[in-house]
Amino acid sequence: MKLTNSSKSSADVLNHVEQNTAPSVGETRRTDTERDSAMQYPLVERARQFASDAHGRHEQVRRYTNEDYIVHPQAVAERVAEFLPEPEVLAAAWLHDVVEDTDVDLDEIRHLFGDDVALLVEQLTSGPHSDDLARAERKLLDRMQLQQADKRAKTIKLADIIDNTNTIAERDPEFAALYLPEKYAMLQVLKQGRPELFALARQIIEEGLQQLDQLSQKPPYEDG
């Protein structure tokens, strides 16, 4: 894979893409006030509370930081709200991991939040996969599923990748060496998502891979 050298910040990347992309009417980046307002829709607030309860019930926490798991769906929803403020999309962003990671099923999501939210959550849910499949095979099936997904689901997935890859190279280089190439491959089926988030996700992954490459080239410590 071809990597590019970049020292741009996340904000620089977003600003650059916005200036060089012609978004459709109604698809410009929202202000902080508009984003915050969208996050307060009743449907979105219900999804926030439901996700908090579902992940909290299983005492799930974020790897590396031990924060309550809900900080991840929150980060994803807030980033998506910058571009897609529709209540159904933001509800799905809050709920994107509950079927995959808790005892909640899609029927419950559909009953409580409607068909559109359930569709997006389904498209963002990995598996279930056979235990006989190797990791590479499972990831291929996930990419095939995302390739057919709604572009709104792809935007949510891009925000998910951004939050999951942002610091992984420095926190866990060994796992990052496996994880980052998988996410780089996944980007190829997410090009219909928001271009700003696609660019940012690609930048973070490429910089993480460069960081791993630099670590691998460091000479061993010599006791002198």
Tell me what the structure shows:
The protein is 65% helix and 0% strand. It has 224 residues and is mainly alpha-helical. α12 (173-187) packs antiparallel against α13 (195-217).
- Level of helix content? 55-70%
Would you tell me the overall average pLDDT?
88
Shape type: globular
Beta strand count: 0
Structural class: mainly alpha
Which band does the percent of strand residues land in?
under 5%
Catalogue the unreliable spans.
1-10, 16-26
Count of DSSP H/I helices: 13
Mind describing the biggest β-sheet? none
Report how far apart the termini are: 38 Å
Radius of gyration: 18 Å
Attribute tags:
224 residues, mainly alpha, 13 helices, 0% strand
Please write out the topology.
Blueprint: H1 10-19, H2 32-38, H3 42-57, H4 71-81, H5 87-95, H6 98-101, H7 106-113, H8 115-124, H9 135-147, H10 151-165, H11 168-171, H12 173-187, H13 195-217
Helix pairs in contact: 1-13, 3-5, 4-5, 4-10, 5-8, 7-8, 8-10, 10-13, 12-13
Short description, anyone?
With 224 residues, this protein is mostly helical.
